[in-house]
Design brief:
- Helix content is 67%, strand content 2%.
- By secondary structure, it is mainly α.
- The chain has a two-stranded antiparallel sheet.
- It is globular, with a radius of gyration of 20 Å.
- The protein starts with 7 loop residues before the first helix and ends with a helix.
């Protein structure tokens, strides 16, 4: 990247020296650690299942939820049942109510957490959501790995680095940990439902963890 001299320089209307100066501010070790961790989380096999295949099926399930939403369906696999929380997320995206970027980001993450809580932890729908989005040990392993202490350290380091490239004020605390916590439903939902914890136990037993 530091030796790059292609068309991007013309698109950005910067000299190569200016480009190198900006690139040197990026924490490339953090970038590499995050990318390697994300790739590792979705590769390999768990309990005889090919994880790349399982991850692709997860994407298909997300598409099904969007289709159900656009068709106006009101069931568990539709965003319409969380209309209030979803509206809150969109409202933050289109209206910046505070002058401080850190407050804006914290507000956005808080709204995302409320939306995810409604979608994943609601007692009437948690079973169907678990069966659709958290029904394979590959997904459990990926969620736990990305939420590990080491990966959170990498994500936080990258976030602080990128933040410093755009803003002078300190980066908001805990937002990365809050965001990552949403993808490990067994701990995120707590006592609101036991379906994710039960599935985790089944996985551990199946793979002899």
């Amino acid at each position: 990247v530091r030796n790059y001299d292609g068309a991007v320089l013309e698109m950005m209307e910067v000299t190569r020296a200016e480009f190198v100066q900006e690139v040197s501010k990026v924490h490339w070790k953090a970038v590499r650690s995050v990318l390697q961790g994300v790739i590792k989380s979705g590769c390999g096999e768990v309990g005889g299942s090919e994880c790349l295949v399982e991850m692709s099926e997860l994407q298909a399930s997300i598409g099904r939820v969007l289709d159900n939403t656009y068709r106006g369906e009101e069931g568990c696999l539709s965003l319409r049942r969380a209309e209030k929380e979803l509206t809150g997320v969109f409202r933050v995206l289109v209206t910046q109510e505070t002058a401080l970027p850190s407050e804006y980001v914290k507000d956005y993450i808080e709204k995302c957490v409320k939306l995810w809580d409604e979608l994943m932890c609601d007692g009437d729908c948690a079973g169907e959501m678990q069966d659709t989005f958290y029904s394979n040990c590959c997904i459990k392993r990926a969620a736990e790995f990305l939420n590990s202490k080491q990966m959170r350290k990498h994500f936080n380091k990258l976030f602080k680095n990128v933040w410093s490239l755009y803003f002078e004020e300190p980066s908001p605390k805990r937002v990365v940990d809050q965001y990552l916590s949403m993808f490990e439903p067994a701990t995120f939902c707590g006592d609101k439902t036991g379906v994710y914890k039960y599935f985790n136990k089944q996985c551990d037993q199946a793979i002899g963890a």
